[in-house]
Write a structure and sequence with these properties.
The chain is an alpha/beta fold. It has eleven helices and twelve strands. Strands 2-8-7-6-5-3-4 form a seven-stranded mixed β-sheet, with helices on both faces. α1 packs antiparallel against α6 (238-253), α2 packs parallel to α6 (238-253) and α7 (255-274) runs parallel beside α11 (358-376). The longest helix has 21 residues, at 36-56. It is globular and about 65 Å long. The chain starts with a strand and ends in a 5-residue tail after the last helix.
Length: 381
């Protein structure tokens, strides 16, 4: 099998699985308990938290463990809005992951706020020069993703943060970093809140992180026993956390090499496939996008039909976000950047890990070429 859907989830690293297994079978104690074995587990969690904090360049107490990206995004949005006296305006984008896009819409309904969408470039990134059109003193929350999960566009968070601070000085700035953390250089410090998910980084599912900048008014998420400094109650998922820690350390130790591997596979597949007729790139240029995401349209072939044809041949790809894969209708992300009609219907997302190879890119390209030639014979005239 050739697996090119790593933006949906990733294969767990052996060392991450081993760490999680040991936590389930040996260090299985509740870190909130008051005896020595539990203290030892708590120490491991503390060390794991410090490792992530060092990558952000932040304090360890600014790292809050969650169940994943969706919870982190929900907590960031509701946890910041719920402590505001008056909620007037939320600025976001039309290309956000559903866990931000739908959460913002729900927050607007609950609090009576106006939602305003930031202007976009054709590659799905925010047009920073035009941010002044939507940012003002009444803006209370800004939520803009770091890397787009379908197109791979990389937002300049530093430039956006400077605009937010200048034009909306009282706004809380959140970024969904699920597709960015360790796939780009970490730069969360200019934002107030930043979301991360473990299973995008070869760690177990069911664990994530929310960076919460000290001094930001934030009520947190779940209420209960007061874990995570009262910002996210609930027994810590120690197996997930320690598995995540092992994966984070492996990624950090190989950051440059792994980025280069993903970019090399992405470039090879792009060159192979765009040599075929009627294949179009969606999103940023190859060099400007994230190293692990490639979105192409194969005109004359429906994306869903091609996906299943490739699956039968052992090549796994997607037509977009896994969280929206079973929803019918138009692709909201592609619509937002002006990609519609046959080009939208024929779009396929490829996403890579450091363990994919150029040989896989060549083999996949051969299969794709064969399948689109066959499928185009049956397209409507």
């Amino acid at each position: 099998m050739i697996y090119f859907d790593n933006s949906a989830t990733t294969q767990v690293l052996t060392e991450a699985a081993d760490a999680a297994y040991a936590a389930m079978t040996q260090q299985y104690f509740n870190p909130a308990a008051a005896y020595g074995a539990a203290f030892a587990v708590e120490k491991q969690v503390t060390e794991a938290r410090a490792a992530i904090a060092s990558l952000f360049g932040c304090r360890a107490d600014e790292v809050v463990y969650t169940s994943g990206g969706t919870e982190s995004n929900n907590a960031a949005i509701f946890g910041s809005l719920s402590v505001m006296r008056q909620i007037r305006r939320i600025v976001t984008t039309e290309v956000e992951h559903p866990s931000v896009y739908e959460t913002v819409r729900e927050a607007a309904r609950r609090f009576g706020a106006q939602v305003v969408y930031a202007p976009l470039n054709a590659d799905g990134t925010v047009n920073v020069d035009r941010l002044s059109d939507v940012l003002n003193a009444e803006t209370d929350l800004v939520s803009i993703m770091h890397v787009n999960n379908e197109l791979g566009g990389v937002n300049d968070l530093d430039a956006i943060a400077r605009k937010v601070r200048a034009l909306s000085p009282n706004a809380v700035f959140h970024s969904d970093g699920v597709q960015a953390f360790l796939k780009t250089q970490p730069n969360a410090l200019l934002v107030d809140l930043y979301s991360v998910s473990a299973h995008k980084l070869h760690a177990p599912k069911g664990v994530g992180v929310l960076y919460v900048k000290n001094g930001v008014r934030f009520s947190g998420g779940q209420i209960g026993g007061g874990q995570e400094r009262g910002l996210r109650s609930g027994t810590l998922n120690v197996p997930g956390i320690l598995g995540f820690d092992a994966a984070v350390r492996a990624y950090a130790n190989n950051l440059h090499a792994w980025h280069e591997r993903m970019f090399r596979v992405k470039t090879r597949l792009y060159e192979n496939l765009t040599a075929l007729p009627d294949v179009l790139l969606n999103g940023p240029s190859i060099r400007d996008g994230a190293p692990h995401i490639l979105n192409l349209s194969f005109l004359g072939v429906r994306g869903e039909v091609l996906l299943h044809a490739l699956e039968r041949c052992g090549v796994i790809v997607s037509t977009g976000s896994a969280c929206a894969a079973k929803k019918q209708g138009k692709n909201r992300i592609l619509n937002a950047v002006g990609i519609s009609g046959a080009r939208q219907e024929s779009a396929i997302r490829f996403s890579f890990s450091p363990f994919n190879t150029v040989e896989e890119a060549d083999a996949a390209a051969n299969v794709i070429e064969e399948q689109i030639r066959t499928l185009r014979r049956y397209r409507r005239r």
